[in-house]
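can u do me a favor
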């Protein structure tokens, strides 16, 4: 059985671990504190049992769950066939993780990052195997979203790029090939352009966030509006992506208003804190805003 290490057990890492286990891989799921991996395993159990109850899984949920082991360090990198990094969107942190992964894992192991905006090429520079470093950019919630961008860094070999495509397909996802490492890759650039405009219009009092979401659903056929997507992704992550875009010279894709940063300052991070552009019950159900 092929083995995978997922680094970071937050919103994305836990989803990547889940879909990998569902596809039959043995998964090591690592984060810095046991409390975080414990919470991730609880969330994964809830999601796997729901999918199982709806008849979407080919095997009992316990069999899927038994394939995921929590880890508190990166040592299991030495045993795996793939590493997928999904830690916080901070370049210095990811650089250190890539250095450690390069030291611990076998030289032939591909090292993938789920970064939304940090150049693959810059992370690859921290390893002795830049030809084996690539972007696998999943979309959240990972168990539900079918798309993964496979991103080629400057030095990623064609062989590893195509192995990335095949790996994504083995998870039951649909790959989109991004042939050049540009800030925000492709889908985030397109989304960010719409989100920038949406945030600025709301902050100027021209329209409400709810009405933008209704408009994009009904007018353009989006499955979810930009503020619903941002609440799911986490406004702290959106803020980091905006800052990263600016630092990479793609500031035209970041909102000019600081609405998102203000909301993060108030603890309104979206679904993960029960409040963002919308309000949520502890079970994740959207609630009306009586006290806005
Ligand atoms: N949220 C989204 O919709 C989305 C979509 C695509 C890509 N991404 C990217 O995925 C990555 C993770 O995002 P997220 O939304 O899951 O964030 P998150 O905050 O939910 O999770 C990040 C996790 O990284 C962990 N972490 C911090 N330092 C670590 C270390 N040294 N080693 C291992 N883990 C460490 C944190 O404890 C946390 O659990 C980011 O790079 C983000 O840009 C996010």
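np, heres the sequence
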């Amino acid at each position: 059985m092929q083995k995978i290490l997922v680094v970071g057990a937050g919103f994305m890492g836990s989803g990547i671990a889940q879909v990998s286990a569902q596809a039959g891989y043995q998964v090591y799921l690592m984060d810095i504190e046991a409390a975080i991996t414990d919470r991730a395993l609880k969330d994964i159990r809830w999601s796997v049992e729901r999918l199982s109850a709806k008849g979407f899984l080919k095997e009992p949920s316990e069999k899927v769950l038994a394939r995921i082991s929590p880890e508190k360090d990166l040592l299991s990198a030495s045993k795996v066939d793939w590493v997928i990094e999904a830690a916080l969107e901070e370049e210095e942190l990811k650089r250190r993780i890539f250095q450690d992964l390069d030291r611990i894992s076998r030289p032939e192991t591909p090292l993938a990052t789920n970064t939304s905006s940090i150049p693959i090429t810059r992370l690859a520079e921290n390893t002795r195997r830049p030809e084996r470093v690539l972007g696998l950019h999943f979309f959240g919630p990972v168990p539900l979203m079918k798309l993964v961008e496979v991103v080629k860094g400057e030095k990623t070999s064609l062989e590893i790029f195509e192995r990335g495509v095949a790996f994504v397909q083995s998870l039951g996802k649909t790959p989109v090939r991004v042939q050049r490492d540009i800030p925000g890759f492709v889908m985030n650039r397109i989304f960010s352009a719409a989100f920038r405009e949406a945030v600025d219009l709301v902050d100027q009092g021209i329209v409400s966030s709810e009405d933008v979401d209704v408009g994009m659903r009904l007018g353009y056929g989006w499955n979810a509006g930009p503020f619903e997507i941002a609440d799911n992704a986490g406004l702290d992550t959106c803020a980091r992506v905006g800052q990263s875009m600016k630092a990479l010279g793609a500031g035209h894709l970041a909102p000019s208003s600081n609405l998102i940063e203000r909301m993060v300052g108030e603890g309104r991070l979206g679904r993960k804190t029960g409040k963002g552009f919308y309000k949520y019950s502890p079970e994740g159900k959207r609630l009306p805003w009586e006290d806005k």
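Strands lie at 3-7, 26-30, 68-71, 82-85, 111-113, 133-138, 147-152, 174-178, 279-280, 286-287. hope that helps!!
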